[in-house]
Each structure stands twice: as structure tokens, then as C-alpha cells.
Amino acid sequence: MPHNVNKTIRISHYSYGDASLPTLILIMGLGMPAAAWPMRLIQELVRKGLHVVTLDNRDSGRSDICQDEMSSLKVMGAIARYVAG
């Protein structure tokens, strides 16, 4: 699986289909890896003529885990605020 590098964090992704076709990027919810996308859905999108890219969010799957404690606290705070409404 390739990794894209943005200075300090590597984001893993999978690519399906012909890269010269229009690209659809599928991003799974927080904490879920790219592997959670149903393969039948991806295959159908490719069959319809799309280049599909799925990625592992930071801290999930094969993407890098954030080592910065403050960043992790910010993410957890955002989740808590969302859950609390």
C-alpha cells in the first residue's frame, strides 16, 4: 500500500481502477481503516468507470499513529464535544 507523506504523517491508501479516469476518494469514518469499505461497492464503482481511492485515516489502519499528545487530546476533545451535542 502506498503512503503519501505530509511532512510528518504518512497516510496509507489503496487505488483501484484506471488512474486516468475520474477519481472518487472514499474516506471512512473516524477510526475506521480503508479496508472497511465493501469490495463489492468498490468493484461496482470501478466498473462504472471511476478510479477509486480509499485511505486509512490518521491513527487507523496502516497510516501513521499521531505521536503528538496535544494532537491526540484535540481529537479526543472534538469527539467528546460531538457526542455531547
Explain this structure:
There is one protein chain. The protein is elongated and about 40 Å long. 12% of the residues are buried. The longest helix is centred in the C-terminal third of the chain and has 16 residues, at 69-84. It has helices at 39-47, 69-84, and strands at 3-6, 9-16, 23-27, 51-55. The chain has 2 helices and 4 strands. The protein has 85 residues and is α+β, with helices and mostly antiparallel strands. The chain has a 4-stranded mixed beta sheet, with helices on one face. Helix content is 29%, strand content 26%. The N and C termini lie far apart (37 Å). Strand 1 and strand 2 form a beta hairpin.
Question: Layout of helices and strands, plus pairs?
Answer:
Elements: E1 3-6, E2 9-16, E3 23-27, H1 39-47, E4 51-55, H2 69-84
Parallel strand pairs: 3-4
Antiparallel strand pairs: 1-2, 2-4
Class per helix and strand makeup: alpha+beta
Beta-strand proportion = 25-35%
The strand order across the widest sheet is 1-2-4-3
Characterize the overall form.
elongated
Mean pLDDT, to the nearest integer, reads: 75
Characterize the biggest β-sheet: 4 strands, mixed
CA-to-CA gap between the ends? 37 Å
Helix segment tally: 2
The share of residues in helices is 25-40%
Question: H/E series, N to C?
Answer: EEEHEH
Radius of gyration: 15 Å
Based on DSSP secondary structure assignment, what is the total number of beta strands?
4
Report low-confidence residues grouped into runs of 5 or more. Answer: none
